[in-house]
User: Fold these one by one.
Assistant:
Number 1:
Amino acid sequence: MDRLKDKIAIVTGGASGIGRGIASLFAAEGARVVVADVACDRGEETVRHIKASGDVAAFVETDVSRAADVERMVQFTVRQFGRPSILCNNAGVMSIEPRLISDLTEETWDQVININLKGIYLCSKYTVPEMITAGGGAIVNVASIAGLVKSPNYAYAASKGGIIALTRSLAFGCGDHNIRANVICPGSIDTPGRARLRRNRTDRQDLSARVIQKDGTPEDIAHAAVYLASDESSFVTGSVLVVDGGSLRG
Ligand SMILES: NC(=O)c1ccc[n+]([C@@H]2O[C@H](COP(=O)([O-])OP(=O)(O)OC[C@H]3O[C@@H](n4cnc5c(N)ncnc54)[C@H](O)[C@@H]3O)[C@@H](O)[C@H]2O)c1
């Protein structure tokens, strides 16, 4: 279990669900992991789980949509462990939005775009200089199949489609500095965030006609993230990895 041995990683949204799964597997594969999240108690809990397995992690309270927080997150990482060479931009909010765009509030639009999309711009902006000094790195973004196919949620789909485009720009713009950028598009994954959404869901939002008739697990996404963060994917950049149980082909 040393596919990320001696690497230093930041995982945003690591207090819950997919982010917790990624942070735990990164640490089990030998990385020193900074868990960044707005949720302090659950973020500390992720770190306790990781340490209980004998692996290394630390928590820093971070709102990825606020530049000052993100700058502090990167400084914390450098102080705690050294320069990061892995950034996993996973933090995000899932939204259920009205059928008609005229009913979508500006507040919801701004919140979803600021966390899901601007957050990745900010985390990349402040982490990339450290990666360059470290000699390179890997950015692994978490989008969604909602960024690839029709989705009833305007802001969410726009944010996730934006992440896919931003990832390609990162791959292009940072490639000269030995930094790769790739994006994972999960389908339906069993997480606390997904459970919250399901409680409010209507039929029109059930798009699943899956080949594999079950939800995925955070570990399914974590395995993909380890591959894209590790040197095993050294010839892979600007790629979109769909991990959805076959729902796009259903
Ligand atoms: N679960 C799914 O079915 C699914 C499918 C496709 C994509 N995704 C994406 O995967 C990612 C993780 O989703 P999840 O299902 O684990 O959700 P989750 O709600 O269980 O976890 C999300 C985490 O992000 C954190 N977060 C929210 N806003 C933040 C902010 N401003 N700054 C820092 N952290 C913040 C939350 O506190 C939480 O810990 C999201 O980007 C989501 O859009 C999830």
Note: The chain has one domain: 8-249.
Number 2:
Amino acid sequence: MNPDKKMAINIGGIEFESPLFIASGVWPMDSAEWPDGAMNGVGGFCTKGLTLRSKRGNPGIRVWETPCGLMNSIGLQNPGIKAFLKQEYKQLKKAGKPVIFNLSFETEKELLLLLGYIMDAAGNVPVELNVSCPNVSKGGLSWAQDVNALERVVSLARRNWKGLLWVKLSPNVSSFTETALAAEKSGADAVVVANTWLGTAIDVSRLEPVFDNIHAGLSGPAVFPLALRLVWETYSAVKIPVIASGGVCTWQNAASMIAAGASAVQVGSALFFDLLAPAKLYEGLSSLLEKRNIGSVADLTGIAHERRRETNKEDLRHG
Ligand SMILES: Cc1cc2nc3c(=O)[nH]c(=O)nc-3n(C[C@H](O)[C@H](O)[C@H](O)COP(=O)(O)O)c2cc1C
């Protein structure tokens, strides 16, 4: 599959051949499970959540299907940064796509150590900070739930990281726009909008919560309209690129996210039923540009805002 120049995007001075990225935590790390053509249309690859030390993940049920969605409470199971860099990273690199390191950390010191290991083994690669993870100094409140802590930790990352810095925001906050502005002010190159939405499930056969942690993250088509609203609002609030994440399954979903203001789109839960989803979305988006005579994905970004402003002007003219 030859990359189409119209589909290339630029985020923080780095060019990616497609606006479609694989979201963190959903891709099988063993390349033997990848179907032929799995990398077609993929602009880059977010790793699963990486932590300083290995994590066994949460006990009990980890994934639960809901109507039109998926709840998960994986608990960041991963081998730890050093083992990842030694083994899985080497496999991922063979796919020939940019790898974005998704990082989870409970203290500022952990973040600095993570960045140090990555710098030594991989150089200034793109990183994505998962600020939905708990900040131990705030008694386990997530970094995103305290704007001051968020600003401090993003500024710290910025001072210590020359590569691309994405901040993946949490929708589980009282003012989402405030957190997006805080990330921008602290030096993020882009904001990812957004991680999973906290929900609860009761197993009625046991009349007990499904998950040991009671709450878990909801993703998939159920959250698409919610994430689309956040993308729309964030695009109006910040100047840095917005990367959409939430329920994107079809090229129409991806086009909606981009028209609402996304410069790029992450695909997550859709991969559970189709590992070739990015390739299909790529084809659909590319033919949309062709059919509507739109020069590039960058020209599609935010187009729905312009159209709405033009309609409003027309309405005013016609009284
Ligand atoms: C099983 C599973 C594991 C996930 N693990 C991570 C993770 O480790 N780090 C992270 O930032 N997001 C993680 N996510 C969130 C996804 O990357 C994505 O942002 C979210 O699911 C919304 O997109 P979707 O509706 O397309 O899945 C995970 C999601 C799922 C379903």
Note: The chain is about 35% helix and 20% strand.
